[in-house]
Amino acid sequence: MPKAIIVGSGVAGIASAIRMAVKGYDVAVFEANGYPGGKLTEICIDGFRFDAGPSLFTMPQYVDELFQLAGKNPGDYFQYEKLDEICKYFYEDGLTLTAKADLEEFAKEIERKTNSTAQEIKKFLAKSETIYDVTHRVFLERSIHKIKSFIHWDTLKSVFRFGEIDAFRTQADANTHSFKDQRIAQLFNRYATYNGSNPYQAPATLNVIPHFEYHFGAFIPKQGMHSITSSLTQLAKDVGVKFHFNTKVTEIVYDRAKVIGVKEGDTLIPAELVISNLDIWFTYRDLLKKLPPPTKLLTQERSSSALIFYWGIKGHYPELGLHNIMFAEDYKAEFDAIWGAKAIYKDPTVYINISAKHVKTDAPDGHENWFVMVNVPANNSQDWDSLILSAKQNIISKINRILNKDISGDILCEEILDPRSIEIKTGSYQGSLYGNSSNNQFSAFLRHSNFSTKINGLYFCGGSVHPGGGIPLALLSAKIIDQEIKNVE
Questions:
Q1: Which residue has the higher pLDDT, 441 or 326?
Q2: Are 324 and 90 in contact (CB under 8 A)?
Q3: How many other CB atoms are there within 10 angstroms of residue 162's CB atom?
Q4: Does the pLDDT value for residue 143 go beyond 60?
Q5: Smallest Cα–Cα separation from 473: which of 441, 442, 438?
Q6: 328 or 136: which carries more pLDDT confidence?
Q7: Taking the complete model, does pTM exceed 0.85, yes or no?
Q8: How many Å apart are CA 159 and CA 151, to the nearest integer?
Q9: Quick one: pLDDT band at residue 314, thresholds 50, 70, 90?
Q10: Does residue 147 have a pLDDT over 60?
Q11: What's the distance, CA 312 to chain centroid?
Q12: So what's the pLDDT on residue 159?
């Protein structure tokens, strides 16, 4: 039986392992950490449990598909529920909005509370659906680096409809013209941060992202986001995948343009197929040292990173939901600070996720687990200790203003994740969460392909390569590789 080796056990690596095992390969996963999941892991402190990274679950069909592919019932491994309430929004002027999954209800609330109309919302989301219809088969579900991907009839139709994806103006420009009330433009500008980009530079094509939430829905796993990792890891084991934790691959070995395995230390582990889930930058620097790197691809602008405070909170805050956004008053100034000054803005937009609102065991009785995040630049040797100290003070001040209460005394315990520790723990170059940014209209074409053009049998998955970052796209990167590899006969 031919052997496949997966380097790294992020969600894309686990998905690739499952897909290769189903194809008939003998699959082994090598993970430098002592646990699977990459960014999609968990932190437990003083009786509080936190999902360490991604906190929003969309497009669950891409997870279900892996169980179905293996002939398993998804519900036997993994349960989730659709959210009635997607997010709560808070503005400094006192406006609060609750984005309901029911579009009619959400549109009516916006019309009732702001200067924008329900019709503006419906028109905007119809445009979001159009962008999805044009792009998803071409740019998300297939390799854009092979000619055969472009000889399908649906691909040709998408090419003819290219003008409909709004690629030639920025997201902020498009949204400014879509809404009378600029607070609603700000609400939809925030979706650029879903792939670590700047709405004042990124193309309006990113307005496809709201379609994932308002059409397909937002969900929560019944045992938290980490259960995506744990359930897929169990599925992988059930189909024969072997995991090797605390085992660092030191080299991908090839001969005469054909992969022959990997090295752990000085030991060669043979394989006919190698899939790297490591950030593409580190894959070339550390594992493919003899192969000239694609310099133009690897020197592109990196996506933003995150500063996250995991706070165990005393008491309940009924005004907050599962997902909460407290907006910066000057949104453009915030992005100018991140992308221009490479700093954290003095009045950052604050995201608070409280999984204990749904997963009661995530916090002790009478308490809540707050995942508090602000967008920050990738690590370029800034003085992070000083930046974090100032940011914490500014974040607490903002939350206090919005909630009209001093929360300082309710913070019982704390852990911090910043760009430096993100890079160390997850192998993400400079701590950037999504690989390259999408701050120009050609970004989709400038991500590294899912296969090597120099070495047969070498593939790449995860958020740093095509089609991009985030759980759904990472899972699609594994699916694209699957389409390129034949079943074992």
A1: 326
A2: yes
A3: 11
A4: no
A5: 438
A6: 328
A7: yes
A8: 11
A9: very high
A10: no
A11: 24
A12: 57
Distance CA 371, CA 173 (A): 31
Question: Residue 25 corresponds to which tokens in the numbers above?
Answer: 């390969």
Q: Residue 432 pLDDT more than 70?
A: yes
pLDDT for the residue numbered 325: 98
17 pLDDT above the threshold of 70: yes
HSE, CB side, 13 Å, CA atoms: give it for residue 377.
20
Q: How far apart are CA 110 and CA 450, in angstroms?
A: 41
Q: What is the mean pLDDT of the chain?
A: 93
Question: Two tokens at 467?
Answer: 């089609």
Q: List the one residue out of 41, 36, 34 whose CA is nearest residue 13.
A: 36
Statement: residue 144 has pLDDT above 90? no
Reported as a pLDDT band with limits 50, 70 and 90, residue 161 is: low
Average pLDDT over every residue of 55-60:
96
Q: How far apart are CA 88 and CA 97, in angstroms?
A: 6
* CA gap 52, 49 in Å, rounded: 9
Domains of the chain plus CATH, in order, are: 3-81+223-301+436-484 (3.50.50.60), 120-216 (1.10.405)
